[in-house]
Amino acid sequence: MKLAAFDLDGTIYFDGHMPEEVPEAIAQWRAAGNLAVVATGKSPHSARRALELFGVEFDYFLLCNGTVIMDGDYELLYESHVPPEVVRAVYERVRDIPKLDLYCTRLEGPDGYLVRNVEGVHNPIISEPEAVAPERIEKEVFPLVAAWTPGNPELQKEIAQWVTDRFPVGTAMNRNFFDITPPGHNKGFALTWLLEHLSRERSEIELITLGDGHNDLPMHALADVSLTFPWAQPDIQEACTAVVDSAVKGLIHYGA
């Protein structure tokens, strides 16, 4: 059995658009008896909203950087969430920082935001989030919390350092986002969970991963073949088996 795990943003989905050859290539991959899996930082709502426009189907979804796992019908198989005391502390730390947004994903419904201080900059990843009142922090569960600091990597690093110095959480920095997840959770964790869920020996599955971000590195580390792209950062390119021009070309060449 072959399993291909696809990141979304920057891999097969680009600011609301999907290359027209992607749905057909994934359909052919699945028709050949292989598994196609989404591995993304997006929430269930955002992933479904992005993909349903293109009629592309997958066998499993590894969402919110590995804290939520769903089957191909978006039925929940596994979930975890950021402890509310962490969400509260991060909110209090960043609430008054200019040019920073603090987003929170949900198991159901649209993504939310606790802080929205960025003005005049298009966010290509999270669209139309809903305001979440601070008093809801202890009443809801958030699988992933993300600070967005467009054009300010130093602020991103400062917030990341502050969080990791105080809390044993999972973290990932990807472009302008700093993601916070429950301890031990990332795309590699979710992919490992899924492989065990399939009840197949690891040697029976040829694993191909495709992704362009730092949050893809944990799943790339598990792969038989890991693929990234020319626009990925140099350290990501160095960590992968090959750099390919597109996900479809990589799937055809290395998945045949």
From TrEMBL:
What span is annotated as the signal peptide, if there is one?
A: none
InterPro entries per the record? HAD-like_sf (IPR036412), HAD-SF_hydro_IIB (IPR006379), HAD_sf (IPR023214)
GO CC, one annotated term? cytosol
One Pfam match: Hydrolase_3
Domain of life, source organism: Bacteria
GO molecular function ontology, one term from the record: magnesium ion binding
- Supply the NCBIfam families for this chain: HAD-SF-IIB
Family annotation (PANTHER family): HAD SUPERFAMILY HYDROLASE-LIKE, TYPE 3, PHOSPHOSERINE PHOSPHATASE
The protein's name is: HAD family phosphatase
Whose protein is this, by species?
Answer: Corynebacterium aurimucosum
